[in-house]
Every structure is written in structure tokens, then in C-alpha cells.
């Protein structure tokens, strides 16, 4: 998978002054566009669109300083419809407008070209299993919350505290299949999963039961899931598990992610300092 990703990066590099389609990059990487975007953002630490934008503005910056083309010519070459749009994007990245940069020979910022390689840290293996599930429902309470990469998510913590215990009890009683009990469900995340972007969060159960009128529900089609298990300090171990699935497991296994909610079943120690977790990720077999 990493070899194909690097081929796609080479394709980007040779066409920064042309239109670049994510679907075409996914074909080069021999995977789906959904999985390609997920893998790229997990490995690069930024969305695909942001990487392409920053690489274009890096090359544009060099051309601005060289002075061989007009500023409008540079803007059009790198996909900007007007000098004003180019100037705004240029200033957002470099901290200075293109005209001033050319006049003063200012130092500009650079986005290096990326290449990917797999680095396996530690000696413990990742425990996983593959599960096929029929259509089911996620039933519970839903909130739109910001994404937090590390530490406790205060918006989620406040949301859960606001659910009365009788409602939690009624939700828990609906659980009738794996993963059992109350789970955390994340859905409708932004493409690049940047810190602060929003997602739908469910404090819910997985069930085939009828949905009470006062609860929120998400219908999940039949499909295959990769189920990962780990334990460690809460919440860091759980957040690292998400990272390791996309930066270590997917590049070395014959599966790719597919659209769908991600489900986390967590069991805390009495002092809430440690946690045992199951993370359910929707997957499908990768193209050979």
C-alpha cells in the first residue's frame, strides 16, 4: 500500500500546475477514493487537499521570488482564478503578500514533498479480528461535537453528563448484539479529521430492536468490520489505537476502510485511569 501511495504522491508532484482529481490518485494507489483520503490524512497529518494546496503555494512562492512571470501568470498557473484569490492564499501560507514578497525578497515558508514509509514502534502485536454483521441500528443520544486528538474531549464529557441515568438505563437495555453495552459512535467526520472539525457522536448501543421515539437512531447497512483490541492509560491508549490502525495496520493488511460509523466499546478501571477497548472500523477487502 505504501508503494502505491508514493506513486500517487509522484503523480501529484508532476501535475501541481494542473487539475488533480482524488479519484485518479486513488486509482494509482489501487484503492477507493474514500480509503485513499483517509490513509493520506492519517499518514501525512493533513488532508489531501491541504497538502496539494501547500505544495502549489511552495512552488508559486519560488516563482514569485524569481520574478520571471507576472504575479497574475503565477496565480493562473497554480489554479487561482484571480490575483486577489492568489494573494489571500499566498498570505495565509507565507504570512506576506506576493507583491511585497517579490519587492523585499522575503523568506517564505515551504511544504516539503512527502514520501511514506512504515515504521513499526514497540514490540507488541495489534490484536484484531474480522467480523461480518447484518444491518443494525445505533440507538441512543446524539450530539454534534468538535474532534479532539489527544486528552479528554470536554464537549463529549459534558454531553454524557447531561444524559439522565434513567435514559442511560433504557438505552443500555436495548443492547442485543456485539459490541455489547453502551458504546461511543463517531460518524460524519470531516475528510481530513483535523483538530476542531465536527462529527456526530452517539452515546448509544448496537441493536436490532425498535427505536423509542425520544432516542436518536442511525441505520448501519450490512458489512464487514475489523475489530481491534487494546488496553492502557485512558484516554491516550484509545486515541493512539485509532492512529495505529491507519498508520500501521492498514498499510500492511489486505483491507481498506469504507464509509460508515466507527464504534468504540470502552470499559474503565475503578479509578478511570486505565481502559480496555474494542474499536470497530468498517472495512472491505482491498483490490489485488
Number of strands: 9
Rg of Cα set:
23 Å
Low-confidence stretches: none
**What is the chain-wise order of helices and strands?**
HHHHHHHEEHHEEEEHEEE
Helix content: 25-40%
Structural class: alpha+beta
Question: How big a fraction of the residues is strand?
Answer: 15-25%
Q: How far from one another are the termini?
A: 11 Å
Average residue-wise pLDDT: 90
* Structure annotation, total helices: 10
Structure description:
With 288 residues, this protein is of the alpha+beta class. It contains 10 helices and 9 strands. Strands 1, 2, 3, 4, 5, 6, 7, 8 and 9 form a 9-stranded antiparallel β-sheet that branches. The chain is elongated. The model has no long low-confidence stretch (mean pLDDT 90).
Keywords:
288 residues; 37% helix; alpha+beta
Helix and strand arrangement:
Layout: H1 2-13, H2 22-28, H3 33-44, H4 48-66, H5 71-77, H6 83-94, H7 98-104, E1 127-133, E2 136-146, H8 154-161, H9 165-173, E3 183-187, E4 198-207, E5 216-220, E6 223-233, H10 236-249, E7 255-257, E8 262-268, E9 274-285
Antiparallel strand pairs: 1-6, 2-4, 2-5, 3-4, 3-8, 6-9, 7-9, 8-9
Give a short summary of the structure.
By secondary structure, the protein is α+β, with helices and mostly antiparallel strands.
